[in-house]
Structure formats: C-alpha cells, structure tokens
Amino acid sequence: MDFNVKKLASDAGVFFTRAVQFTGEKFGQVEKTELDAHFENLLSRADSTKNWTEKIFRQTEVLLQPNPSARIEEFLYEKLDRTVPSRPNNGELLGHYMQDAAKDFGPGTPYGSTLIKVGDCERRLGGAQREFLQTSAISFLAPLRNFLEGDWRTISKERRLLENRRLDLDSSKARLKKAKLAESKAACEGEAVPDFQETRPRNYVLSASASALWSEEVDKAAHELRVAQTEFDRQAEVTRLLLEGISSTHVNHLRCLHEFVEAQTAYYKQCYLHMQDLQKELGRFPNAFAGNPGLSMASGGSSPQGNATLPQDAASAVETDTLKIEEVQAPATGTRKAKVLYDYDAADTSELSLLADELITVYTVPGMDSDWLVGERGNQKGRVPVTYLELLS
C-alpha cells in the first residue's frame, strides 16, 4: 500500500488553512474575494433551476404513480439495474374482473353482455394509461433525472472546487499582506527575529538579516498568490461555462414539457373517445332493463302482461329509437349552427356522419334523447351526438 505521509500532512494542512479562512470570513475577520454580479446571477439561476426541477420531477412521479410503495419498488429496481416486473394497472385489472364476472353470469344475459363491453373499455383505458406512462417517463422524467444526476452533479463538483480555489486565493492574499507588514516593521526597527508563525513556518538561517528574510518571505508569498490567482481564474471560467449551459437546459426542458403535454392530451382524448364509443354501444340497448325479471319484482307490483309496462324513460327511448329521421321536419325556430369537433362515423342509417371542423345545422325533436340532436348538411339528415359538437350562437 502506497502511504505517502508527506502528502497526507500537506492535505491536512491545506484543509486546516481553508477551514481557518472560511471561519474568519463567517465572523467578518478576514477579507473575501467577491464574484462579479453576472457570476452571482448565474449561480442563483442554477440553484433555482435545480430546486424547481427536483420538485417538478418528484411531483410528476407522484402524478404518474400515486402508489408510494410502487414508486419505492421501481426506484429499487432501477438502482439494481433490473427490469421492473410487468403487472396490470387498475384499469386493466378492473376490466379483467368484469369480463370474468360476465362469464360467470352468462355472456348472453343483458348484465353479462354489458359487463363484457364495459370491461373491454376499461382494459383499453388501462392500455392507454400504460402507454401514457411509458411515453411520459421517456420524454419528460428521464431528461429531468439526467439533469439532476448528471449535469447538476458536475456543476456542484466544479462549484466546490471553485470555492476551494477562492479560499486558497484569499489565504494567499492574507499571507502576503502579513509578510509585507512584517517586512516594513523590520525595515523600521532594524534587525529582528521574524515571527514565522504569522506567515509560513520554515527553517531559515538566522545569520541573515531579518529584513532580507522577510523580503524572501514576501517573494514566496507573492509567487503563491500568483499561482492561486491563476488556478482561481481557470476554475472560475470552467464553472462559468457550465452555469451558462443552464440556458440550454431550459430549452431542452421546454421541449420535453411540450412532449409531456402532447402525450397527456393524446391520452385524455383517447380515453374520451373510448368512453364515447362505450356510451354509444350501451345506448343501442334501450330494452335491456325490460328483460330483467328482477326489475318488475323490485317495482313492488306485478303485471299480467309481464314486461309490457315500461318506465317512462324507457318508453321515450323506444319512441326515439323508432323515430323515422326522414320524416322529421326542421322547426320554424330553434335551429342552430354547430361546429363539428371530431370525426364521427354513423352507426346506422338514422345517424349522420361528421367531419371535424365542418358546420352543420342542428335542432331538437320532442322525445329524443338529450345526448342527441338532429343534424342537417344540405340534403343529408340524421342524428348526431351532442358531445361531438360545439354549438354556435
């Protein structure tokens, strides 16, 4: 083992000197080299960037994975450089439960068939969420993590080196100042034994004059000051370049933020469309409750005609379902213009296909479901979903 006692003693001496200098600065007993205003602004901006990036990163992790146990598990797998085991998310798990329940209740029953449709939708929602999480982790979380664990660590290391160089520089300034004062005092008082404890202890030949010894000490202190100033200037330039790179970091994070918003927008739009399709599919079965014998029993009465008596809402649904669109006439008043928000493919001949951004005329028909309107485009007419429209005044 290469154990260098001289180097160990030298490092300990440097550390002690820096500690003394730092303590003196804190108590205002020694001078401190101040950085220029531009450099201070760069330092403040870098600290602010680090602090807010860390907060945004942590809160985004909470948003994407609300379960703290799962976050800890993912963190451990990442540190161990292992792949996180794949597991179904809440939406996918709910979809599986619903479809398994449908098999048990009977897929041919109204409840079973509806469970199958809703379960399939929940599984698609879970898949969309999984895709959103993966995209966000790659396009947003990874760059933020790389900055905190890469660039910021480099900046912090160089800043610590700069602080050490500054302490060495200020210590050299103080040593030179004391040596000059001692030299002036020796020149005025004649021969005197120098107090080496105030500058730098060395073994000197005491036969020389005190003034000559102090002049030599001043030269050495001046040389050390020049070396310390050179090292400080070089380290300050390196640190300045790294701090100015924060502007590039902001540009990169801005691009990542746009990608995160786009991924989130696509995710919520996909979820909305899945739910719209599910709602439309469920709306095609207005008589589903009529076939449920439990509904008649729960109503508190029996009918000799079985299911001939329907609730008022169900009767309205049947009436709307049997409404012939071609026979509907536009009212004299009450028509409005509407802008189509999304493309829509008609499910049957009673509906009107739509193209995004086109303008159509819409109006209501007594007895029609409130989620639908009658739309006209030239000679074409049909039912259109309200959620796909922006009604204009």
UniProtKB/TrEMBL annotation:
Location of the BAR domain: 24-291
Pfam family, one: SH3_9
Main location: cytoplasm
Top-level taxon: Eukaryota
Keyword list, A-Z: Coiled coil, Cytoplasm, SH3 domain
Compartments where located: Cytoplasm
Subunit structure of this chain's protein: Homodimer, and heterodimer with SH3GLB1.
Protein's recorded name: Endophilin-B2
Species the sequence originates in: Salmo salar (Atlantic salmon)
Organism lineage string: Eukaryota, Metazoa, Chordata, Craniata, Vertebrata
The encoding gene: sh3glb2a
